[in-house]
Amino acid sequence: MTSIGILGAGRVGANLAGKLSAAGHHVTLGVRDPEAAAALATGTAPQIAFADQRTTARTADIVINATPGHDSLERLTDLRTELSGKLLVDVSNATRDAGDGLPGDLCYPGSSLAEQLQAALPDTRVVKTLNTMLFMVMTAPEILTTPPTAFLSGDDRNAKETVTGLLGDLGWQPGWIEDLGDITTARATEAMILLVPHVLRRNGFKPFAVSLTR
Asked: Given a cut of 70, is residue 38 above it in pLDDT?
C-alpha cells in the first residue's frame, strides 16, 4: 500500500482520492485551511484522511498536484523542503480564464507548468499526466466509447513506471498510456487545454478526452 498525498480537494482531487483509496492506497487530501479539512471530512469515506498541505506533502510517499494550475507553482515552491525526494504527479493545467470563466490562455507559453515545477523543485521527480481530459475520465476511462489516452512526461524513467502503475489502479489499460519523453514534452499536452473551452461551449460538460489512435 502506497501513501499518496493529494494537494487540492476540489472535484479533481476528491475524485482521485476516492478511486485510489478504493484501490488500497493510504490517501490524504491536503487543503490550505486545516479547519476546512475537518469540515470536508464529514461524510467522506473514513479511509481518506485530511490534513493541511504542508503535512500532506511531508508525510506522503507520492504527491499529486490537483491545485488550480495558475498558482500551483507558488504553492508547491513553498513546499520545496517537504517535496524533496518525492515523486510529484502533476495533473493541473496553468491557464488564465476568458470572460466566461473557461480557459483562455496559457500561463507559461513556450513552457509548461510541469517544466516550471521541475525547475523550481530540482530534488523532486515530476511526472505530468491526466491533464488532457475532464476530471471524471481520470478515474473511469472506460466510460468513453473510444479508448482515451493518458500521456506521460517526465525526466525519471522509474518515476514514470510508478505513475503507470497508479494509472492502472485508476482503470487505465497499458495500451491507453503513451510515454512522450522528458518533462519538456508536457508543454504539448498542456497546450491541449486550449481545445477544452471550445468543446465545452459546443457540447456542454460531457466527459471527453484526447485520444491517440493508430
From this structure: no
The DSSP bridge pattern shows strands 48-52 and 95-97 to be unpaired
Residue type, 1: M
Given a cut of 80, whether residue 24 has pLDDT beyond it is: yes
The reported pLDDT for the residue numbered 47 is 82
Cβ–Cβ < 8 Å for 99, 135: no
Query: In CATH, what number does 3-203 get?
Result: 3.40.50.720
**For the whole model, what pTM was predicted?**
0.94
Closest CA to 51 of 88, 5, 117, 104: 5
Q: Look at 36 and 57; give whichever has higher pLDDT.
A: 57
pLDDT value for 41 = 59
**Residue extents of the structural domains in the chain:** 3-203
Phi, psi torsion values for 191, nearest 5 degrees? -65, -20
CB under 8 Å, gap of 24 or more: what pairs does 78-86 form? 79/53, 79/54, 80/120, 80/121, 80/123, 80/124, 82/54, 82/57, 82/58, 83/57, 83/121, 83/123, 83/124, 84/121, 84/123, 84/124, 85/123, 85/124, 86/57, 86/60, 86/61, 86/62, 86/124, 86/125
- As a whole number of angstroms, the distance between CA 79 and CA 129 comes to 21
Distance CA 143, CA 72 (A): 29
